[in-house]
Write a structure and sequence with these properties.
Strand content: 15-25%
Number of helices: 11
Number of strands: 14
Oligomer: single chain
Radius of gyration: 20 Å
């Protein structure tokens, strides 16, 4: 069962959302899109909690994993806009204990810090102060392949500590005050305890979470992507921890509204958003073997077009399938989130974004109803 509505011309997106359930076995999900600042798609359906039989409703809140990185990147860019830091400065200028003095803020944001894992281990995964202290004294990897390598979890401790050193607030506190409150966003870096009842329950089918074979020095275990990790994801401790790389929670409507605000020049100026989109590095991720590209924390379009077809797309996806971002030339901002993680290739988000792009560029009046389309599938 799917619910929600679409604006005229976007009914094909609703049809594709329904097919995710009927043809692709979706468990529970939400999808929303804004065009030129107006909400044009707001869809939800399926189960928020399979075991309890709880339905996904309009107010269900979902863990977005690395979709959080786009939120934290915006926090850093606001500090740049205010003249409180520079992307070209070494991270150690703001964080004196950080020993890898040559690494710049831009390099940390674009996954070039050569600190993609924690040598001291992840025993204090949810304690920011401990994990940031570990990274401060850790020597960057000397393996040349690590010079441009995705920092799945460590990115958050580096960036959050930078925000704390410059502003005094954590990434979660900063985002709540500077973005969520003024923009009225249902988006959090760290879910407040009183909202835990709205959170969905995450699941992973057999074979998605696997132990990493120790066949290469770059292949290190990710404590959030090993068998049994669902217990961590769904715990109240994780929900409230506010990990700046992977600890965000949102409704699809809230995430789409956030990226719509970036396009409109709200909070961040157009010039600052363009700075965030400016490509810093592009190349092949050494452990994935596929192309990645980054601006100042935002993912940019690559060959797989996982953030949609337009060339100027930017945003950030999340592990297991969620996708959040914007297409500036189309005036489109979007968010797809779900509670069943899957391995790649995953057609759920790709099909929705293809339908969204088609609806955005089509002028066929036969596909444009006279009024809003209610969806009940």
């Amino acid at each position: 069962m799917t619910n929600g509505w679409t604006a005229p011309g976007f009914d094909r997106v609703a049809a594709e959302f329904e097919r995710n359930f009927t043809d692709r076995g979706e468990l529970g999900a939400g999808f929303a899109a804004y065009r030129d600042g107006e909400l044009v798609v707001d869809l939800w359906g399926g189960l928020a909690d399979r075991e309890a039989g709880r339905a996904w409703d309009r107010d269900s809140v979902q863990l977005i994993f690395s979709g959080t990185k786009g939120l934290a990147a915006a926090c850093v860019l606001l500090l740049v806009q205010r003249g409180q830091l520079s992307l070209d400065d070494p991270l150690s200028r703001y964080w004196p204990e950080f020993r890898a003095g040559e690494i710049t803020v831009a390099e940390a944001l674009s996954h070039q810090a050569r600190l993609a894992w924690v040598d001291a281990g992840y025993g204090d995964l949810l304690d920011h102060d401990v994990m940031a202290a570990h990274l401060a004294v850790q020597a960057p990897s000397t393996d040349p392949r690590a010079a441009f390598m995705y920092h799945a979890i460590t990115w958050g401790w580096l960036v959050d500590e930078l925000i704390r050193r410059v502003d005094g607030r954590s990434a979660g506190q900063f985002f709540a005050a500077e973005f969520a409150a003024p923009l009225d966003l249902e988006v959090w870096i760290g879910l407040p305890e009183e909202l835990h009842g709205r959170a969905t329950t995450m699941v992973a089918p057999d074979g998605v979470l696997v132990d990493v074979p120790e066949t290469d020095s770059l292949l290190r275990p990710n404590p959030l992507w090993v068998p049994g990790a669902e217990k961590i994801w769904n715990s109240p401790e994780y929900r409230g921890a506010g990990l700046a790389a992977v600890g965000g929670f949102a409704t699809a409507r809230g995430m789409a509204r956030f990226y719509s605000a970036l396009l409109s020049g709200s909070v961040l100026t157009t010039e600052t958003v363009e700075l965030g989109q400016r490509e810093i590095r592009r190349g092949i991720e050494p452990t994935w073997g596929s192309e990645i590209a980054y601006g100042a924390g935002f993912e940019l379009r690559v060959a797989g077009a996982h953030l949609g077809p337009p060339a100027d797309t930017f945003g950030h996806g999340g592990a297991g399938g969620s996708r959040h971002g914007a297409w500036p030339t189309h005036g489109i901002a979007f968010s797809y989130l779900m509670n069943e993680v899957r391995a790649q290739p995953d057609e759920r988000a790709l099909s929705l974004l293809a339908a969204l792009e088609s609806a955005t560029t089509s002028e066929d009046p036969e596909t444009t109803p006279a009024g809003l389309s209610d969806v009940t599938g």
